[in-house]
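Subject line: Sequence and fold of a protein, written as structure tokens
Body of memo: The sequence and its backbone structure tokens, given next.
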Amino acid sequence: MKLSDWEGEFIASVSERVEKYGRAFRDAEKGNLGSSLSTRQAVKLKEIVGKAAGKRPWGRKPGGLRK
């Protein structure tokens, strides 16, 4: 599956910051300072990896909402 321009830019930006600074975020309230990604960055990256692998976003079922 093709990634959107935004998703490609997100991955490139995060990768660049991790290589340069050892992590992709600065604010300690956004994640563990021992981690290279903030909590939200990690979640978004997991979603993008799933999309690239052809998996549906979690929580969504074909056919819309359940009754």
